[in-house]
Amino acid sequence: MNPRKTARLTGAVLIAAAMAVMHSLPASAASSGGTSATDLSTLQFEAENPGLLDAMKRDLGLDATAARTLATAQQTAASTENSLRTALGDSFGGAYFDAAARKLVVGVTDASKAGTVTAAGATAKVVARSAAQLDSAVAQLDAREASAPSSVTGWYADTVTNEIVVTALPGTAQAAKAFAGDVRVVEADAPQPFLKGGDAYTIGGSSRCSVGLTVRGGFVTAGHCAAAGQPSNGTWGGSSFPGNDYAWVRTNSGVTLEPRVGSVTVKGSTSAATGAAVCKAGSTTGWTCGTVGAKNQTVRYPQGAVSGLTASNVRCQPGDSGGGFITNAGQGQGVVSGGNSSVCYFQPLGEILSVYGLSLLTG
């Protein structure tokens, strides 16, 4: 191998080779008089996102046309959520994307503000608690984390039901309620960071994580990956775990950074609403898709608690840690942190970029 050969790096670089074979448009597509502009747009979308679309078909039951329509609806919902959060102020009670209706649902604590929501094209839902009150309740539990029983694995605000939820090991609901009070308890297996030993983006020569999203000068990934040693393709520019679960790698000279996760071009970092479809690319499981769950979750890993994570029902396994979460509209969401058999948590991208002053590469 020529040591001077330039490497090319995209998100989830270990699976990029398997994803980067682009499906060409049929030669007849451009010249067929019977092909509509919408059909051509769908064909182009399918050609540009082969690995991601395969996963969306398998995991979400969506073909290229449905995936493209969903991408547009989710982008609109994300923009609407941001504007209504400001417009509603203290009356904002959280929001989520209704996948069946393809519409944003926004909670309001003041019924008189419902008209503001409907005027923005969303569905209004009167709720008892504001988003600020829910966040405050989560913060109060965070402050008491050290006194939580070991059977309690985390907590979060559920914006769909407008309540606080505590996660706990099977059979320990009563202990969770004794700690947290009047909350809903969900029992599930203990979460673990998704780091895998013995394989290659080797760290310290023995452990593997996944490249997340590329930034100017390197890429972002999971913070717990840094505990295993130095990455094979650069040096740590910064890392934080536990408490947070983010890091970035300053890549070696000769590495060409590309604004892609697999074959999907990164367009930005607008946060998708709870309930929106999202996919991830990891070096173990490749492309897998699901929906965004509750945000601002506190998760108690064996190594310590991490706050501010977002849940999803995307399938992840050891070795996927650090892999990039992205929507099918190309909006980067974050990097794989950990989870269990039913939940995969990711560290939101915006916080990583802000903490380290990084610039996301987009195309």
How many distinct domains?
3
Strand fraction: 25-35%
Q: Count of helices? A: 8
Task: Assign the CATH topology of the largest domain.
Answer: Thrombin, subunit H
Distance between the termini: 30 Å
Q: Nearest-angstrom radius of gyration?
A: 21 Å
Shape: globular
CATH superfamily of the largest domain: Trypsin-like serine proteases
* Largest beta-sheet characterization: 6 strands, antiparallel
How much is the average pLDDT? 87
Give me the CATH architecture of the largest domain, please.
Beta Barrel
Q: Identify the CATH class of the largest domain.
A: Mainly Beta
Helical content class:
10-25%
What's the β-strand tally? 24
Which class do the helix and strand fractions yield?
alpha+beta
As residue ranges, the low-confidence spans are 1-6, 12-38, 196-200
Care to describe what's here?
The protein is of the alpha+beta class. The protein folds into 3 domains: 66-126; 131-190, GMP Synthetase, Chain A, domain 3 (2-Layer Sandwich); 193-356, Beta Barrel (Thrombin, subunit H). Helix content is 25%, strand content 31%. Strands 8, 18, 19, 22, 23 and 24 form a 6-stranded antiparallel beta sheet that branches. A 5-stranded mixed beta sheet has the order 7-6-5-20-21, covered by helices on one side. A 4-stranded antiparallel beta sheet has the order 12-13-15-14, with helices on one face. It is globular, with a radius of gyration of 21 Å. The two termini are 30 Å apart.
